[in-house]
Amino acid sequence: MPILFENVSHIYSEGTPFRYSALSNVNLDITEGKITAIVGETGSGKSTLVQHLNALLLPTSGKVTVLDRTIISGEKPKDLKGLRRNVGLVFQFPEYQLFEETILKDVEFGPKNFGFEDSEKKAKEALKMVGIEESLFEKSPLELSGGQKRRVAIAGILAMNPKVIVLDEPTAGLDPSGSKSMMNLFYDLNKKYNKTIIIVTHDMEQVFAYCDEVVVMSQGQIKLKTDVKSFFKDSSLCKSFGILAPHLIRLKDSLIEKGFKIDEEVDSIESLVKIVSRQVKK
Amino acid sequence: MNSLTLGKYIPLDSIIHKMDPRSKIIGMLIIIVSIFFPSGWIGYGIIGLSVFVVVLLSKLNIKIIFNSMKPMMMMLLFLLFINTLVIKDGDLLLDVFGFTIYSEAIFQTLYITIRLFLMIMTTTTLTATTKPLDLTLGIEDLLKPFKRFGVPSHEIAMLISIALRFIPDLIEETQRIMKAQASRGVDLKEGTFKEKIMAILSLIVPLFVSALQRAEDLANAMEARGYSPGKPRTRYKVLKMKGSDYTLIVCSLILMVSMIVLSRMYA
Q1: The complex's ipTM?
Q2: Cβ neighbours, 10 Å, residue A217
Q3: Which of A13, A16, A88 comes nearest B183 by C-beta?
Q4: Would you call B185 and A160 a contact, using CB atoms and an 8 Å cutoff?
Q5: B107: exposed, middle or buried (C-beta count within 10 Å: 0-12, 13-18, 19+)?
Q6: CATH number at residue A143
Q7: Interface membership of B85 toward A (CB under 8 Å)
Q8: A257 and A201: one domain?
Q9: Among A81, A135, A199, B136, which residue's CB has the most CB atoms within a 10 Å radius?
Q10: Which residue of B has its CA nearest to A156?
C-alpha cells in the first residue's frame, strides 16, 4: 500500500487577507518500505506536506491515501487516532514537547494514549534503540543535554511502533557524530524492521548516504521524484534545482573534467580512489 | 486565531495612521471620559458621529468594528437578563405570569450597550491604526512626566512591547506543541476527565518551559547588546506632533466640554 497524494492543495487562512497557498496540486506516491528524502528550500511546503500524512492538516482540495486510510478534502475524517498510531510524526526540534516528570514516563505517554498494554516495555525498548542508558530513565527530561532530549523525543514516537515514521529535519542542530548515529538508527529501522521512513532534510550528504528516493519541492509543488542514485549521477541535476551536490559527486565531476574516465557508479571515497588510481598507474 | 480582530493593527495609508501615537492616545482618553458623562441620546449621537468620522478618515472597514463587538454579545444579553430582573422603574412593558419587564430596564441596557460600543469603537480605531511599537513609544512619552513620582515609564513601555512581541510567537508555539502531542495520540476533544487533564498538562508544561527559555534568551541577548534599564537612551524614531494631531486633541476637548454641558442640562 503506497502513500498517495492526488491533486492535493493546502491553503492557510482561506478567506482572510493572510491567505497563503502552501501546496498546490501535489501528486506524489511514496513507496512503502523505503527511505524517502524530501528536499527543497525553506518555505517550499515540505512541512505542510508531511503534516498531511497523519492528518494534522487536512487537504483543502484533493485526496491523501496513507496505509489503508483515505482522506478526502471536505470530509470529516474519523478515527484519526488509528492513523496517528501507525504514522509517527517527529516535528522539528521535538525536544520542546517533553513534559513528564521522568524520561520513561514521557516516552510511555504516546503508547499509553493509544491504549498499549505493554507501554513500559515498549518505552524501554525505544529508549535503548536511541541509545539512552537505563540509569537516565528516572531522571527529568529537562536535565538532559539538547542532543539527549532530541533522542528521548524521538523515542517517544518510536515507542508507538508506527509503520511509517516521518521526521522533519531530525538532525538540525545536532553535532556531526550525533546526527550520524541518528541517521544510522533510521537506516536500521528501515532495514531491520521494514519501516517506511520519510525524512525532510537539507543535508544532501545524508540523502546520498542513507536514502533510497528523493522528492524535490519548490513553491508548494513537486518538481521531481526519483531514486537517489539517478539524482546524484552527476551534479548537473542537483544544480538545476539550485542544490549543492554531495562532496563525492562534485569531486567525481571535477575529476572527469580533468580527463579521468569514470563511468561506474561511485558510492564511497574508496571506490572513487580505486578507479582513479587504476588510471593513474596506466 | 483569525477571530482576533480586537486590538489588531491593520496597515492602511490614511491620515489617522500617520498621526502621532501620543495625540491618538490622548484623544482616545478624552473621548472615553466624555462617554462616561450621562449626556443622553443627543450626546451619544454626537460622540458616535465624531468617532464615525474618525473611522472614515482612517479608511478602516466598519465591519472590523462590528466584529470586535461580537465577543461582548453574550455579556450584554446576560446584562439585559439581570436588568429585567432587578430594575422595576418606568413603564410596565410586559407582564407574563408575574414576569415583568419595565422600560427602564431596557433603557439601562441600551445605555450600557451604546457606551460599550462607543468605547470599543474608539479603542479599536486606536489599535487598528497604530503599530503596537508606536503605541508603546507613545505610552512611554506620556508617562514621562510621572517619572518624578517613581513611575518607571521606560521600563513599563519596554515591558509592554516585549509582551506584545511574544504574543504571535506563543500562539505559534502553542499550535506546534498541540500538533506534536496530537501525533502522540493526545485528543483534546474526547476522552475521560483524567485524560483531558493529562492532555492539557502535556500542552502547558512544554509551553511554560519554552516561554521561560525564550525570556531568558531574550534577556541575555539584550544584555549582550548593552541594554541597561536605568541608563538614558536615545531613540531611533522621534515622535513629532503635526497640525492634524493638535486638531484631534482640540476637537476631542471640545467634544468633552460639550458633553459636560449636555449632562448638566439633563441634570
Answers
A1: 0.87
A2: 25
A3: A88
A4: yes
A5: middle
A6: 3.40.50.300
A7: no
A8: no
A9: A199
A10: B184
